[in-house]
Design a protein that fits this description.
single chain; alpha/beta; 6-stranded parallel beta sheet; 5-stranded mixed barrel; 14 helices; about 20% strand; binds S-adenosyl-L-homocysteine; binds iron/sulfur cluster; binds FE3-S4 cluster
Length: about 475
């Protein structure tokens, strides 16, 4: 790997100095609150941001309105994600009027978008700090500048991206952890803004990944999710990712998952790993996006419907009970009714456990933004409703087929709706709710599935000989 992509020790030390300086400032914020939007990448970045702020002496504050520093880690993958971020920021203007000492920071993918930093600066001058995805590790320096000069800082770098190792972290969960294996994306699917805001594909060294995983295992973490926009092209593709999985598996962490896989790079070795690795969960998120070859070509996905179906077949022969989920875009520019119906028939053929469905959203700067898009919004909306209804039936049938089974659930949380209930996932990734208390969180519990709902299962705890 190119050494220049790794942030040097000197730069990290400089940031350590700024951390110490912020910490010793008499007039510094005491508490912080981070609002995370978007995907798991952002969730993991927020853990790093929280770690850096904690080292600067700030404490987390659960209530946003009470915090001295509010940081938005934004997403821009679709227009509504962006609107949500901007809507939140406008609302903060009022809060800032009441509490002028409040610090407002905006980072993440939306901040990295072309022209966005300037727009934020011009339209929302009350924001104290804007930073992008490539300079997150310099947060201590920026915060120090904001506090010292009492002037807004807007710093978004044009860069292919870097890798910063050894940053502090404050993890959201004690038993389930995200571990980045790579950053950025080189696929340039024609609709997608991610490659523009996250930079070029770059992989961490396997030793760095394994060391982090090892530390987590030592801390008692039960589940590790390896993260990348396209984990199958880890270190250039081939069997590198399967090899890394093998090494993580050998560490003995009970559950391993990963996100996200691109079908074009799914290797035979990875498929085989499903049949071989003891801790790799029988679950795969494999975004298909569309079921029609012309649309797939226009999306620059570089696989065909037939190839995708073949991969599913191979996966199921390696691991018959594998749970599959996917992402689908409806209403890509020029999509005809017949082409959309190919997506429906693919969904019927595969029978995914679940699907995330999105109406195409035009992103400025992407190739698809140039394409004529004359399908009316109501038509797109009708199409997505048909797709959602079809998938809901399939999900329900798959969940119903789980009734009567005995499963091991890793308990994640207290149920939001029913007091005295907890929820967690089966190996396949189905959410099960069952009567239990907070003491079970982070533990494995044997459960018998008693009924199926729309998206979740209900169960009861059992003891087995
Ligand atoms: N790297 C991941 C996806 C990241 S974005 C992958 O390739 O699978 C998550 C999902 O958002 C994508 O899979 C896609 O379905 C959806 N998406 C991305 N850009 C979009 C756009 N412009 N409009 C609608 N959905 C989009
Ligand atoms: Fe976007 Fe495609 Fe990269 Fe996924 S693989 S992040 S959809 S460009
Ligand atoms: Fe959004 Fe950035 Fe993830 S655009 S989906 S937060 S990589």
């Amino acid at each position: 790997m190119n050494q220049q992509t790794i942030v040097g020790a000197e730069e990290l030390m400089r940031q350590q100095e700024f951390t110490a300086r912020v910490r010793s400032l008499a007039q510094r914020p005491q508490t912080f609150h981070i609002v995370t939007m978007g995907c798991q990448m952002n969730e993991r970045d927020s853990e790093t941001i929280a770690g850096m702020l904690a080292e600067m002496g700030l404490r987390p504050e659960a209530e946003r309105e009470k915090a001295d520093l509010i940081l938005y880690n934004t997403c821009c993958v679709r227009e509504n994600a962006e609107n949500r971020a901007l809507g939140n920021v406008i609302w903060l203007k009022e809060l800032k009027k009441e509490r002028p000492e409040l610090l407002i920071c905006v980072g993440g993918c939306m901040a990295q978008e072309e022209g966005m930093a300037q727009r934020l600066k011009a339209q929302y001058p009350f924001i104290d700090l804007v930073f992008g995805t490539h300079n997150l590790h310099r947060l201590p320096e920026y915060l120090w500048r904001v506090l010292e000069k009492r002037q807004p800082v807007v710093e978004v770098l044009h860069s292919d991206g870097v890798i910063a190792e050894g940053l502090p972290q404050r993890r959201a969960s004690a038993f389930s952890a995200f571990v980045n294996i790579m950053y950025g994306c080189d696929n340039f699917c024609s609709y997608c803004i991610v490659p523009y805001v996250r930079g070029r594909e770059r992989s961490r060294e396997p030793e760095a990944v394994l060391e982090e995983c090892k530390r987590l295992v030592d801390l008692g973490v039960q589940e590790i999710t390896l993260l990348g926009q396209n984990v199958n092209s880890y270190r250039g593709g081939g069997n590198e990712f399967a090899e890394l999985l093998r090494r993580v598996d050998a560490l003995g962490v009970p559950r391993i998952r990963f996100m996200t896989s691109h079908p074009k790079d799914l290797s035979e070795e990875l498929i085989a790993a499903y049949g071989e690795l003891a801790h790799l969960m029988p679950n795969l998120h494999l975004p298909v996006q569309a079921g029609n070859d012309e649309i797939l070509r226009a999306m620059n996905r570089r696989y065909t419907r037939e190839r995708y179906l073949e991969l599913i077949k191979k996966l199921r022969s390696a691991k018959p009970d594998i749970g599959l989920s996917t992402d689908i875009i409806v209403g890509f520019p020029g999509e005809t009714l017949a082409q959309f119906e190919d997506t429906l028939s693919l969904v019927e053929a595969v029978r995914f456990d679940s699907a995330f469905t999105f109406i195409y959203s035009k992103r400025i700067g992407t190739r698809a933004a140039q394409l004529p898009d004359d399908t009316p919004a109501e038509v797109k909306s009708e199409r997505i409703q048909r797709l959602i209804a079809l998938q809901a039936d399939i999900s329900r049938e798959i969940l119903t087929a789980q009734v009567g089974r005995r499963e091991t659930v890793l308990v994640e949380s207290i149920s939001a709706r029913d007091e005295g209930w907890v929820g967690g996932k089966t190996p396949r990734g189905h959410m099960v709710n069952f009567p239990g208390n907070a003491g079970l969180i982070g533990r494995f519990v044997r459960v018998e599935i008693v009924s199926a709902g729309r998206n979740t299962l209900r169960g009861k705890q059992i003891t087995e000989e």
